[in-house]
Write a structure and sequence with these properties.
By secondary structure, the chain is α/β, with parallel strands linked by helices. Helix content is 26%, strand content 17%. α4 links the parallel β9 and β10. The termini are far apart. It is an enzyme of class 3 (hydrolase).
Length: 304
């Protein structure tokens, strides 16, 4: 196991993630919090788990994250939009290449600058995990919006791309009503953390089978931002969560798009899956982003 310290190893490791995705524009990882994250006593940026022989191309898995960071991937020809990427990992780990830097490279190709978040992972099985991740994502969105000029972003065109567990966090951000899950720390927390749009790719555990409804506490509000959702019928994390979330969006009149593929499983990111058309989701998403992440023509309001 490789341990990430606070100094050179963490920089080298995270830069390595970026090289796996073919994106050389990422700078050193930046901290999400000015000091310790809420409730934390450690500053660990995580442990890289041993690579699995079956993973071709390789997949990086990082556990024991106590100090969240994000990497910046600026588009070569930016259109002013930005996306915070929330990788998956079941909250016990974060997968920063398959569901992070590879997605950042794709977004860069659409003229969208991307920011990959290594959020905190859960401490034990009794920890639901999403609470720390949600806090980190809320803070990161406020940070991006407060420093939009620094990265060439328009503050009203900053969205989310969440995979698996990160997709659940994205759904919680869409439905939290702008309520922050931690006490104010500084002026950055006075800046809105609500995304302007979101893409949820195989969002994990949105469905509560016992209630035949969205997971407890999740209600789609009337002012929910537009959302694009991808799932497969054979995903072990039921696609009913994606379907119910989409239904909630439609009931509220929120612009939304849902794609459920017959097969493809879970955890594919942007990669091809043999015998499935699932990798075509990026083409549909690119068209959707043209409508919801790019500035509308002068005098024509954006559909929201």
């Amino acid at each position: 196991m490789k341990h990430l310290s606070l100094l050179v190893p963490v920089v080298a490791g995270l830069l390595g993630f970026c090289l796996l995705a073919g994106n050389s524009q990422a700078a050193d990882p930046l901290p999400v919090w000015p000091d310790l994250a809420p409730g934390e006593t450690l500053r660990s940026r995580g442990d890289i788990q041993p690579y699995r022989e079956a993973d071709v191309p390789p997949i990086t898995r990082v556990t024991n994250i106590r100090q969240p960071t994000f990497t910046v991937h600026l588009a070569a020809e930016p259109n002013g939009a930005g996306v915070l990427i929330l990788p998956g990992g079941g909250f016990g780990k974060v997968v920063p290449d398959l569901e992070g830097t590879e997605a950042a490279a794709w977004l860069n190709g659409q003229g969208i600058s991307a920011f990959v978040l290594n959020y905190r992972t859960k401490i034990d099985n009794a920890d639901p995990g999403w609470e720390r991740a949600l806090q980190d994502a809320q803070r990161a969105l406020s940070l991006l919006r407060s420093q939009a000029k620094r990265w060439g972003l328009q503050p009203d065109r900053i969205g989310l791309l969440g995979f698996s567990a990160g997709g659940q966090v994205a759904a919680r951000l869409l439905t939290d009503g702008g309520k922050r899950n931690y006490e104010r720390i500084d002026a950055i927390d006075d800046v809105s953390h609500r995304p302007d749009f979101a893409l949820l790719v195989y969002p994990w555990k949105l469905y509560d089978a016992s209630a035949n409804a969205l997971t407890e506490g999740m209600v789609v509000p009337a002012d929910c931002p537009p959302a694009f959702i991808v799932h497969t019928d054979d995903d072990h994390s039921s696609s009913l969560g994606a379907v119910l979330f989409y239904a909630g969006l439609k009931k509220q009149g929120v612009p939304a798009e849902l794609h459920v593929y017959g097969n493809g499983g879970h955890g594919y990111g942007l990669r091809d899956v043999k015998g499935s058309q699932i990798s075509s989701w990026t083409g549909h998403a690119a068209h959707w982003l043209e409508r919801h992440a790019q500035a509308p023509p002068t005098g024509q309001p954006q559909d929201r």
